Amino acid sequence: QVQLLESGGGLVQAGGSLSLSCAASGRTFDNYGMGWFRQAPGKEREFVAAISWSGRSTYYADSVKGRFTISRDNAKNTVYLQLNSLKPEDTGVYYCAAHRAGGYRSNINDYVFWGQGTQVTVSS
């Protein structure tokens, strides 16, 4: 079992930046590939970014490529998501998730552990 706790969300103007963190506890963190997803009101949860267990491989949704950066620090059991050049359409609840495969995954069904989410609101 892996417990995940997100933090760092908030309200920001368009063009601004936020830094999200996801602290993991429980089983060995560096055995898991990690990802970030988001869910806007009335929409399905969608993939944002993923990172392999080592941190050497990353993958992004086209909508955030070049603006968001995912990283991890296995010594701190933490994965991060840096959000830059934010747009109103980036608004939503951002979730951290873990999967057992080790590499990076974009399929939501591959993820087995989820955090409670943190709200990101971007005003125009």
Task: Explain briefly what this protein structure is.
The chain is an all-beta fold and 124 residues long. The chain has no helices and eleven strands.
Task: For the structure shown, list the relevant keywords.
124 residues, mainly beta, seven-stranded mixed β-sheet, four-stranded antiparallel β-sheet, 11 strands, 51% strand
Describe what you observe in this structure.
- It is built from no helices and eleven strands.
- By secondary structure, the protein is mainly beta.
**Helix-residue proportion:** under 10%
- How do the SSEs run, as a string of H and E? EEEEEEEEEEE
Mean pLDDT figure: 95
Radius of gyration over C-alpha positions, nearest whole angstrom = 13 Å
**How much of the residues is beta strand, in percent?**
over 45%
The tally of helices reads 0
Low-confidence stretches: none
Number of strands: 11
Distance between the termini: 40 Å
Q: Characterize the main sheet.
A: 7 strands, mixed
Structural class: mainly beta
Shape: globular
